[in-house]
Amino acid sequence: MAGKQAKILSPQQFSRLLEAVEKHRHPVRDRAIIYLSAKAGLRACEITGLLWGMVTDADGAIGDALYVENRIAKGKRGREIPMNSELRSALIDLKAASPRSEPHHPIIQSERGNGAMTASSLVHWFDRLYHGLGLDGCSSHSGRRTFVTRAAISAVKVGASLRDVQEMAGHSSLQTTQRYIEGSSDAKKKLVDLI
């Protein structure tokens, strides 16, 4: 896929992903991975670097935001992302099922139980998942592109701007954020009809 952007996920494809991971050996963990990608826009290295302390409040409960610390963020661009309600539920379930959920412990554990999953392992995990579902052109970045595109489309509805989307994505430039956003032929037609 060199030179091509990862495809974004339709709502139907996203549902298929969730259905597929329910049949995995670790469905609770795998559901959280899908939500961290598509509902928080995290990169593979950020998903695997995320610690429980980055998603919990002072009492140890899953909080209202997740904090991508500089040390796990690309370009050391840490950020705060408000917690999507479905992601929050998935993390609550994962925390309840995890044998180790101290603040310094990785959220996404390796299947072998020897610590955090590596970013390259997660990239391969996504590749196998998408290939198994026949979702050609999708990669570990598809959830992130889906998040950025949907956030950009919804921004106007809630009084947000592309700058807000840029900050949640952790991009240094608005131009980078704009490259992630996929246009919609239907939306363009509706827009032109309003003119």
Automatic annotation (TrEMBL):
Residue span(s) of domain Tyr recombinase: 4-193
Family as reported in the entry's similarity comment: Belongs to the 'phage' integrase family.
Protein species of origin: Paramagnetospirillum kuznetsovii
One BP term from GO: DNA recombination
MF GO annotations: DNA binding
Keyword annotations from UniProtKB, A to Z: DNA integration, DNA recombination, DNA-binding
Protein name: Site-specific integrase
Domain of life: Bacteria
